[in-house]
Structures are given as structure tokens and as C-alpha cells.
Design brief:
Layout lengths: L6 E4 L2 E4 L6 H7 L12 E6 L2 E3 L10 E6 L3 H22 L4 E2 L4 E2 L2 E7 L6 H17 L2 E7 L1 H7 L4 H7 L5 E5 L2 E4 L5 E7 L6 E6 L13 E11 L8 E10 L2 H16 L2 H7 L3 E2 L10 E2 L1 H20 L3 E2 L5 E3 H7 L1 H5 L7 E3 L2 E5 L4 H8 L11 E10 L15 E11 L1 H21 L4 E7 L9 H18 L3 E4 L9 E7 L5 E10 L1 H6 L3 E2 L5 E2 L2 E6 L4 H11 L13 E5 L5 H13 L4 E3 L6 H10 L4 E5 L1 H5 L2 E6 L4 E6 H13 L5
Parallel strand pairs: 1-5, 18-22, 24-25, 31-32, 31-33
Antiparallel strand pairs: 1-2, 3-4, 3-5, 6-8, 7-8, 8-15, 9-12, 10-11, 12-13, 14-15, 16-17, 19-21, 20-21, 22-23, 23-30, 24-26, 26-27, 27-30, 28-29, 33-34, 34-35
Helix pairs in contact: 2-3, 7-15, 12-13
């Protein structure tokens, strides 16, 4: 390192520091952030765009920025450091435990262990108690660069770490739907040091960065444990994974835990059973739901409304089969890039057939079934198409991660000059339709060219530019996810927040220059030449099943009247009042309202409680006085009630609420 005083850039201004100055010292000298434990602590630095420990020395020309613990990067570092404390605590209690990996994940962290027995609840309590002792000790995280030989020698008793050393510079599949980078061009070990003596207490192979000390961990909690295959493969040993969460303050952690409790109350699998909407019979298989009559009503209403909106927007409806010859997906490229997510082929007359994982190749064949003119473009094809994807059992999750599901799938074929306005119109259509279902908080993500892709960089750049232009015109807030596009196309994902603040990825728009070329489709342009159309993939709900599950949790089962499977229940005070309510029900049915009359032997109050448990929007109660006045007592789902409401007024209020999609 040079002995000259380096000149660095901090928060946009230049600063001269002493040789050997660390990023933390430079930030402190510049007065940028507090480096003491707390909700706004600066716990790391971004040096030339790369996350680094505060102990990292700075050099001439470096651009240094503070990383607060409450930022996205700061929380990831906090959670990663807490995962190390977890691993240390486990090995303190059970020295025979072997270490897997321990990355931060959304809202938390986990660590995998090879142990003789699964972790029981009492074991998790003991581990958490030991973690709190480690945090109080203020152990210092210290980074060391080591050679491969040194790493292998120091970690000789950790077989999984030795395997990771051999993967230096790559990624390891950590779970069925994620991967973790295991190292860059160098190997590093992080030591946990005794704050008084500097003695190494514990160590781990890790890329970092980490907190300055364990005292910077203000709030954490172990959540649960479960099995997880090493490197996400069922061919590998099953390890035991402990999940936890960590936050920059106890109050934020309490808010998160309260949200989790509310999410558990809203779990669509639980509500689906309680409200008799759907089930997952073991005789059919994992990830393959069946919808019961009430669930079928909600699904039909969702689909019917979507169909109407698509018809109004100029879409044409098509239908395609559930299986196809493998050669179709060879031609489209899916077998080369997507085969692991497809079910195994079935032999039919000596030919491999696959359950289709997506509808797009078949829509391309519909386009190519005859000659096309520029006058037909944009051609918007739409289908409720059922597809099948092989999801590993560990990630199948009710309706939100199923193996068989129905996409509201559209493929739009357009000319180059139509691409930008079509994308802008599509975004408006997507957001408008989602708003009709009661979702209001949106954010988009633009995913760009991945490492493995088809086509030319120029084509990708053009498609990405068109998507970005559409986002800019839409006014939606958005982020760019570099390298996260599909192999054949960049995409826009529209995310929504539900009633308790969770973020869900829903609609997807992709610009595809590849499949039209693979299938050689064309149209005759105005000048008589043959041109290749652009193709836009678009799924609005993502899938009917997943959207159903999201809405069920968003509304906690209390669907707005237009979506509720039963919109009105008639509740007689006595058996003699049933015929009167039957007549009211007939009038409601004539107006398209879904209504039932509870003629059971239960007492009136029990009937009301039953309707409330089933989250019926409206209850119409009738007794002698109501019949005499040609009226009803009008009770709402929240327990409020209006008495002496005329039948005409009651029907008009219900019909209006349904027609206008009122949120009750």
C-alpha cells in the first residue's frame, strides 16, 4: 500500500486521509453516520459500488458510501451476521454439528446443519439463549483472505465447507428456488474474536461483509426448523435448517411478528378449508387442487369478469390442448432451457409427449395457421390455459405454488412500430383490472438479459428499451433487476402489496424476439414485403389459482359482495317466516344475486353466527313486524344492522354494491 495520503470521495466530496485508514474511520472523520449500536447505526461501507466491512482499508480514488443497518443492504448484513451467531451457538451446544450454508433471506436468515436428530422446540430455545450470550459478548467479526490449502486445513472437519471451497467463484443451489454465491476470486474466512484478548472463538468460510461486532444485533428470534436437502438436490443428504429473523430494532421486529401472526390467521389453505372453497386430496397428488362449489363460484366470477374486460380490449379467445409432442418444445427452446421444470415425458405411439408448461408455442402455431396481414395487427390471443410444472415437494405451497394451474395467458403479435404503444396500453390494462379486484399498491420490476439467453444483444437492448419506455409512461414506481430476465425475453413483473403489507409478484409482460424467429412467422406489410412480428407474452393474474389464494388472504376470506360465493343469507326469526324470506330470495335471484335462506332448526342467533363465520356480506332477518311492514332487518358482515328496511331498498342496495364492486 502507498504511504502517500490517499484522496477518496465520501458522499460526493473529496477527502484526504492517512494511509491505512479504514472505511469506517473515514466515514467517522467525515461525520457520516453513527458507528455505535442503534437503529440508525452505520455498519458497513459501499466502496466503489461493492459492500465492504468498516475495517476495510481505503485507497486513493475510492468512492466510499455509508451503509445504515436499516437499509436493504444493512438488513442483509445484519441477518447474515446473525446467521453466523446461530451457527456458533449450535456448535457450542453440539460440537459434532457440521455446517452447511447460512445466507440472509427476505425478512430473515437460515443456517443448515448436519446433526443426528432434528431440532426440537426446546433445542431452539437453548440455541437462542446461547445466541443472546454471544451477542452480549460483543465478539468482533474479522475477515481474512486465505489460500485454498489454508482453507482446507482450517476447515478439515467441515465436509460441506470443503465442498464449497471446490466451488469457489460459483453458486450453490441453497433451496429449490434460490441460489447463494459461495465466493469471488478469493477465499475468505471470518473469525469471531474475543473483544478483550483478540482470541479466535469461532470461524466460518464466508464472503461477507459483516457487522463490526455482535453487539450490533439489536433484535432477533429463531422461528422454526425443518429439513432441507444439501445444495437443493434430493440426491444429497438432508440437513436440518433453522430459520430466524433479525431487525434493526425490537419495535420493528414486533411489527413483523404481529404481521406473521396475522398472515397465519389469513393463510389461504386454512381459510379454504374453513369456508369450503377447495382442497388438496392426497389421492390426486401434491400441488393439484380441486375447487368445491363455493370456490368454483368465486373462480367463475373472476374468470367471467376477466373475459368481459378482455373482450372489451380487443382480445380473441383461443383454446389449446394440455399435452403436446416434445418436438414443439424443442423448436421453441423450452426443452433446452426449461426441461427441469417440466414433467417427465409420456410415450404415445413411440413419440414423447409432454404436459405443457406454457401456452406460448401453441399460440404461435395458431398465428401461423394461415397468412397474416399488417391489417390484423396487433393480434391479441387470450386463453385460460391450464399448464403443468414440476415443482419440488419442498416448495409446493397451496394455491400459490402448485403443480397444475390455469394461466390467464395472452400473446400479442404486433409490428415494430406498435410495440411501444401496445406495451403502454397493456400496463394500463393490467393495473386497471387488478384495481377492480381491490388491489391498489403497485410496484414494477424490469428484468434484463441473463447470462444464458438466446438472440442477439441488440435485440435484447431494443426489447428492454421498449419495456422501460412503457414503465416510464405508466408512472408506476419500478426497479431494475439486472440479469433476471427469462432466457428468451426481458420482462416487467408487476408486484402488489396486500392488506397486511406483503409483496406479491403478479402480472408479467415479456417482449420476445426469439420465438417468432424460431417458428418463422411473418406478416405481409403495407409495402407488400414479408416481415416478422414482435411477440408479447402477458399473464395478468399469473395463474387463477395463485391469484385466488392471494385475494383470499388479502380479504381474510371476507370477499367483497361481487366476489362472495354467497352474497346474502335470509335468516328467519321462526319457521313461520321462511316463506316470506323465500319470496325475497326469489326477487334477489331475478337480479342475479347469490342468496340462500337458512331454514335449519338452529336458533336465530346461531344462524347469524354461522353466516358471519362464513363471511357472508349481507344478512336479511325477518320476523312478524318485518312481514307486516313488507321489510327486513338489514345486517352487515361487521355486525351493524338497520331495521325496517323495505324490500325494495334492501335489494337495490345489494344489487348496487355488487354492480359497482363495492368493498364491504
Amino acid at each position: 500500500m502507498s504511504t502517500q495520503q490517499p484522496r477518496i470521495t465520501l458522499a460526493g466530496r473529496e477527502l484526504v486521509v492517512e494511509a491505512g485508514t479504514t472505511a469506517g474511520a473515514a466515514l467517522a472523520e467525515a461525520g457520516l453516520g453513527e458507528q455505535q449500536p442503534g437503529e440508525h447505526a452505520v455498519i458497513a461501507a459501499r466502496v466503489n459500488g461493492q459492500l465492504r466491512d468498516l475495517a476495510c482499508p481505503v485507497e486513493a480514488g475510492d468512492v466510499v458510501e455509508p451503509v445504515e443497518i436499516g437499509s436493504a443492504d444493512g438488513r442483509a448484513i445484519l441477518r447474515h451476521s446473525t446467521a453466523h451467531v446461530l451457527a456458533q451457538a449450535v456448535q457450542d451446544i453440539n460440537p459434532q454439528a457440521k455446517l452447511g450454508i447460512g445466507p440472509p433471506v427476505e425478512a430473515g436468515f437460515y443456517y443448515d446443519f448436519d446433526v443426528d436428530q432434528p431440532f426440537e422446540p426446546d433445542a431452539l430455545k437453548a440455541i437462542e439463549a446461547r445466541m443472546r450470550q454471544i451477542v452480549k459478548q460483543g465478539q468482533r467479526f474479522s475477515r481474512r483472505v486465505v489460500s485454498e490449502g489454508e482453507a482446507r486445513s482450517e476447515l478439515a472437519g467441515e465436509p460441506y465447507k470443503l465442498e464449497l471451497i471446490g466451488l469457489k467463484g460459483g453458486t450453490v443451489s441453497a433451496d429449490d428456488d434460490e441460489s447463494v454465491e459461495v465466493g469471488g476470486s478469493e477465499l475468505t474466512i471470518y473469525d469471531n474474536l474475543n473483544p478483550g484478548t483478540g482470541e479466535v472463538i469461532w470461524k466460518d468460510l464466508c464472503r461477507g461483509p459483516h457487522l463490526p461486532t455482535t453487539r450490533f444485533i439489536p433484535a432477533f428470534k429463531l422461528m422454526r426448523s425443518g429439513g432441507a436437502y444439501w445444495r437443493g438436490s434430493e440426491k444429497n443428504p438432508q440437513l436440518q435448517r433453522i430459520y430466524g429473523t433479525a431487525w434493526e430494532s425490537r419495535s420493528l421486529q414486533d411489527e413483523y411478528l404481529a404481521m406473521l401472526a396475522e398472515a397465519e390467521r389469513r393463510d389461504h389453505r386454512k381459510l379454504g378449508a374453513e369456508l369450503d372453497l377447495f382442497s388438496f386430496p392426497t389421492e390426486i397428488g401434491s400441488g393439484l387442487p380441486v375447487f368445491h362449489p363455493k370456490g368454483g363460484i368465486i373462480r367463475r366470477v373472476m374468470e367471467d369478469y376477466s373475459r368481459r374486460r378482455h373482450e372489451e380490449a380487443g382480445y380473441q379467445f383461443v383454446n389449446t390442448p394440455h399435452i403436446t409432442k416434445g418436438e414443439l418444445f424443442e423448436r421453441s427452446g423450452h426443452l433446452g432451457f426449461y426441461k427441469e421444470s417440466m414433467f417427465s415425458p409420456m410415450d404415445i405411439d413411440g413419440v414423447d409427449y409432454y404436459a405443457k408448461p406454457m401456452n406460448c408455442p401453441m399460440h404461435v402455431l395458431i398465428y401461423s395457421s394461415r397468412g397474416r396481414s399488417y391489417r390484423e395487427l396487433p393480434l391479441r390471443l387470450f386463453e385460460f390455459g391450464t399448464v403443468y410444472r414440476y415443482e419440488k415437494s419442498g416448495v409446493v405451497h397451496g394455491l400459490t405454488r402448485a403443480r397444475g394451474f390455469t394461466q390467464d395467458d395472452s400473446h400479442i403479435f404486433c409490428s415494430p412500430e406498435q410495440l411501444a404503444p401496445e406495451l403502454a396500453s397493456l400496463l394500463d390494462f393490467v393495473v386497471g383490472l387488478l384495481r377492480d379486484f381491490g388491489l391498489t399498491d403497485f410496484e414494477a420490476e424490469l428484468s434484463t438479459r441473463p447470462e444464458k439467453y438466446v438472440g442477439t444483444p441488440e435485440e435484447w437492448a431494443e426489447a428492454e428499451a421498449a419495456l422501460k419506455s412503457a414503465l416510464d409512461k405508466s408512472g408506476l414506481p419500478y426497479t431494475v433487476a439486472e440479469g433476471e430476465g427469462a432466457f428468451y425475453a426481458p420482462k416487467i413483473d408487476v408486484h402488489v402489496k396486500d392488506a397486511i403489507g406483503r409483496r406479491w409478484q403478479l402480472s408479467t409482460l415479456q417482449v420476445d424476439f426469439q420465438e417468432p424467429g424460431r417458428f418463422g412467422i411473418e406478416y405481409q406489410a403495407a409495402d407488400g414485403t414479408r416481415q416478422r412480428p414482435y411477440m408479447i407474452h402477458r399473464a395478468l393474474f399469473g395463474s387463477i389459482e395463485r391469484f385466488f389464494g392471494i385475494l383470499l388472504e388479502h380479504y381474510a376470506g371476507a370477499f367483497p359482495p361481487w366476489l362472495a360465493p354467497v352474497q346474502v343469507v335470509g335468516i328467519p326469526i321462526a319457521d313461520a317466516h321462511v316463506p316470506y324470506l323465500d319470496k325475497v330470495a326469489s326477487l334477489l335471484r331475478e337480479r342475479g344475486i347469490r342468496v340462500e335462506v337458512d331454514a335449519s332448526d338452529d336458533r336465530m342467533q346461531k344462524k347469524i353466527r354461522s353466516a358471519q363465520r362464513q363471511k357472508v356480506p349481507y344478512m336479511l332477518i325477518a320476523g312478524d313486524e318485518d312481514i307486516a311492514a313488507d321489510a327486513v332487518s338489514f345486517r352487515y358482515r361487521d355486525g351493524t344492522q338497520k331495521n325496517g328496511v323495505s324490500i325494495e331498498q334492501a335489494i337495490d342496495e345489494i344489487v348496487t354494491a355488487v354492480r359497482e364492486r363495492v368493498q364491504v
